[in-house]
Design a protein that fits this description.
The chain has eleven helices and no strands. By secondary structure, the protein is mainly alpha-helical. Helix 1 packs across helix 2. The longest helix is centred in the middle third of the chain and has 34 residues.
C-alpha cells in the first residue's frame, strides 16, 4: 500500500510531503491519500464478521478509521502505513458493529431480566451465559462447532485432548489445535459475541483494542498456513 517515495530537495520525499500537507489541513492532499488507500478499507472490511451490519455502513466506518490513521500516521518512523492503518480501520469497523448490535442486545437482556422472576441472580446469569454461548457457537462452521464440543465435553461427553480430537476428525494434533484457536477467535468477533459482551460488560475501548491486536496476529498466522 505504501508507494515508492521520490526524493525532493532537502531530503523530503513526495510521499512524506503529502502526509505533512494532509495533516496540516490540506483537503486535497487528504482526499488523495484517502483515495489512494481506499482498497485497504475494503480489504479490512471483507475479513470482518459483520453480523447484520450492512456492508456500506461497515465501509463508512472503515473510512472513518482510515481518516484517523492518516491524521495520526508518522512517516518518519519507518512503519508501513498499511500496518498502522489496518488496526485503526478494524477498530472503527468493530465499534460500528458493536453500536449497531448493542441496542438489540440490551433490549433482549432487559426482557430476559424482566422474565427472571424469583430466580437467583447467579442462576439466571449462568443460564443466560449458556444460552448466549450456544447461540454464538451455532454461527460457526460445523467443523469448528465439533472442535469445541469435543474439546469442552459438551452434551455429556468427556473433554477431549487435541490428539483425541484429531483422531475423531482425521486430522493431526497440530491442525486440531489450530482449528480450536480459529473457533475461539471467531467467537470473539463483535458481531458474534455482542450478547455475551453486553452481559459480561466487555465492550470498553480497551477490550476492543486488545481484541484488535490479537486478531491481527491471528490473521497473520492464518495467512502463513495457506
Amino acid at each position: 500500500m505504501h508507494q515508492k517515495q521520490t526524493k525532493r530537495k532537502g531530503g523530503l520525499s513526495a510521499e512524506t510531503t503529502l502526509w505533512e500537507q494532509a495533516q496540516a489541513g490540506c483537503q486535497q492532499s487528504l482526499n488523495q491519500l484517502m483515495s489512494q488507500h481506499d482498497r485497504l478499507v475494503h480489504a479490512v472490511v471483507r475479513k470482518q464478521v459483520l453480523g447484520d451490519l450492512p456492508y456500506e455502513m461497515a465501509l463508512h466506518a472503515g473510512r472513518v478509521g482510515l481518516w484517523k490513521a492518516i491524521r495520526g500516521y508518522d512517516p518518519h518512523r519507518g512503519t508501513a502505513f498499511s500496518s498502522y492503518a489496518w488496526l485503526a480501520i478494524m477498530r472503527s469497523v468493530w465499534m460500528a458493529v458493536k453500536d449497531y448490535h448493542q441496542e438489540t442486545a440490551q433490549s433482549q437482556l432487559s426482557m430476559s431480566l424482566t422474565d427472571q422472576g424469583q430466580e437467583p441472580d447467579w442462576q439466571w446469569e449462568r443460564r443466560a451465559l449458556h444460552t448466549y454461548l450456544r447461540a454464538a457457537v451455532a454461527t460457526l462452521p460445523l467443523r469448528l462447532q465439533r472442535i469445541l464440543h469435543f474439546r469442552y465435553g459438551w452434551d455429556g461427553h468427556q473433554p477431549a485432548t487435541f490428539t483425541q480430537i484429531g483422531a475423531q476428525l482425521g486430522i493431526t494434533k497440530q491442525r486440531a489445535h489450530q482449528l480450536h484457536r480459529d473457533a475461539l477467535m471467531r467467537l470473539r468477533q463483535p458481531a458474534i459475541s455482542y450478547k455475551l459482551r453486553s452481559l459480561l460488560d466487555k465492550q470498553s475501548p480497551t477490550d476492543y483494542l486488545i481484541l484488535a491486536a490479537e486478531t491481527a496476529v491471528w490473521l497473520q498466522l492464518r495467512a502463513r498456513r495457506r
